[in-house]
Amino acid sequence: MAKQTSLFTFTGKAGNMIGYYRDGKHYFRSMPETVRQTTATRRAAQRFGAASSKARLIRGAFANDLDVHCDAGHINRLNKTIIKGGVRNTEAIAGFRFNQYTGTDRFFTVAPTLSENRILHIPPQALPPFRGISTLEVKVIAARVHFGERRVTGTETAMIVLDTREAFAGAALNVDVPGKGTLIVALQVRGMCGSRASFNRKYLAADIIAVQEPQTKQVFHKPEHQQQAMLQQRLQSLATPAHISPTPLVIQRE
């Protein structure tokens, strides 16, 4: 009777071997002893690492509050979006879909807007009818992310339910999350079948709709002619004799 032997298979790295599948078959290959990187590939690796770190923070900021399942490729898609827009340009992620199959524009043909005072305005509009969908559950998730400190500094949520048979009069929601960092606002819409959400992914949307960078203090420079006048006054005071010194400015404390 022939003796049977079993081959241990694995995927990934084990020691100096790498296991992987291709076309339904399992293969092994050894790792190269040295990896040569050009300047371009090294920079690309650094950009990818920075984008991945940033994307991880963004995903974590919304993970606990999202009720819509993300598609399988959302991690890579977010990384690519950040790299394409520039790692330092967080505003480039506005419009990103956690569920690539459906966007919030399917439900709101007139897009929401975020004002400078951090009020999210959803304009009045007619809601499109959907077969089997009686209401829309609309959830706003606002998060502050401090990328320099690599942490989420705060999150806030608000929810409204809209009857698809009635005209929508619009809504204004305060999304001003206290704390430091970039404000990122996501809008989630779920089509409801009675008291439960639809299982059909075309009725489930969650998009990043707005990004607002932290406001920096403005430095106001005095016009050049004012600076010259102040310098002239200073020179005149230095030339004034000591016994004719001007009256000193008195600051009264309460």
The poorly predicted ranges are 237-254
What is the alpha-carbon Rg in Å? Answer: 29 Å
Q: Give the terminus-to-terminus CA distance.
A: 104 Å
DSSP helix fraction: 10-25%
What is the N-to-C order of secondary-structure elements (H for helix, E for strand)?
EEEHHEEEEEEEEH
User: Structural class from helices and strands?
Assistant: alpha+beta
Structural description of this entry:
By secondary structure, this protein is of the alpha+beta class. A hairpin with a 4-residue loop joins β4 and β5. The protein has three helices and eleven strands. Helices cover 21% and strands 29% of the residues. The protein is globular. The termini are far apart.
List keywords for this structure.
21% helix; 254 residues; globular; 3 helices; alpha+beta; 11 strands
Present the secondary structure layout.
Blueprint lengths: L11 E3 L2 E6 L2 E6 L8 H25 L10 H12 L27 E2 L4 E4 L12 E12 L4 E13 L7 E4 L7 E12 L2 E2 L6 E9 L11 H16 L15
Antiparallel strand pairs: 1-2, 2-3, 4-5, 5-8, 6-7, 6-9, 9-10, 9-11
